[in-house]
Amino acid sequence: MVTEGYDPLGTFNWADHLPLLKWLDLQGVRRRCNRLVQKVEVFVGKIIQEHRTRRANGGVSDEFMGDFVDVLLGLEGDEKLSDSDMIAVLWEMIFRGTDTVAILMEWIMARMVLHPDIQAKAQAELDAVVGRGRGVTDADVANLPYIQCIVKETLRMHPPGPLLSWARLAIHDAHVGGHLVPAGTTAMPEAFRPERFQEEDVSVLGSDLRLAPFGAGRRVCPGKMLALSTTHLCIAQLLHQFEWAPAAAGGGVDLSERLNMSLEMATPLVCNAAPRVQAA
Ligand code: HEM
């Protein structure tokens, strides 16, 4: 359904520009959207209904606080959402939050496979902070600054939503280190070096326009905190449990990009995961 939704989103719809064409729906955009809306209503409606049933059977307690859907269902008074608003909020999370996070994680893992030294440094951080006796939890993430730097560096080099990047545009001819950089050139450091964020703390949340992978201002991504906490935790867990290496058959990692609605890896990452050996 996400793929089905992205397709009309990326279509140039003549009816948006020539209102007379709107009712003819020559490109079938309206028809496709209506069909998708029906599917979404059934799919998300079922999730809401399951939560309602669980709540009615006493499923949410002080011990089990429930999930995001339970929070929405628990809103009262002026805050109470209609079913169609709730479906819209939940669908937005699925639609905008699934492939962006998955794609970011794929780029991060590609970088981990390409840079075993950086992977080893992240694993050393995990061993020092978490140890090998238990799994990584949400509470550990704040104590894993190097892994946070890896995520930032990946957002810098491979932003899933490349609206504002860290690239610089030369607005006039310039000389840098003896090289001529002609006006109109875009330039960006190409080395994958998470340490740059240890040297200079740059926020990725939209307050520093040098690096705004979630946008900035009024239209800034509302899912940025969820995206970051999911990514930090999952990447930390993957690195804690496994050593990652290029797939034996495929060889290296192809970093070519493909710009769909998000900036994807043109060649999906294939790699080997070997359980990490227990330290003696
Ligand atoms: C790594 C993951 C993500 C990246 C890189 C990302 C990036 C972005 C960017 C660049 C925008 C456009 C901002 C603008 O128009 O200026 C955006 C918008 C949006 N994002 Fe995210 N996003 C991510 C994850 C998520 C998640 C997890 C959710 C929901 C749970 C989400 C929900 C949205 C929504 C609803 C908008 C539209 C906001 C609007 O137009 O007002 N995103 N995101």
From TrEMBL:
Heme binds at C221. The keyword Heme applies. Pfam families: p450. Its cofactor is heme. Gene3D superfamilies: Cytochrome P450. InterPro entries: Cyt_P450 (IPR001128), Cyt_P450_CS (IPR017972), Cyt_P450_E_grp-I (IPR002401), Cyt_P450_sf (IPR036396), Cytochrome_P450_78A (IPR051996). Keywords: Heme, Iron, Metal-binding, Monooxygenase, Oxidoreductase. GO terms for molecular function: heme binding; iron ion binding; monooxygenase activity; oxidoreductase activity, acting on paired donors, with incorporation or reduction of molecular oxygen. Belongs to the cytochrome P450 family. This is Cytochrome P450 78A5-like. It comes from Panicum miliaceum (Proso millet).
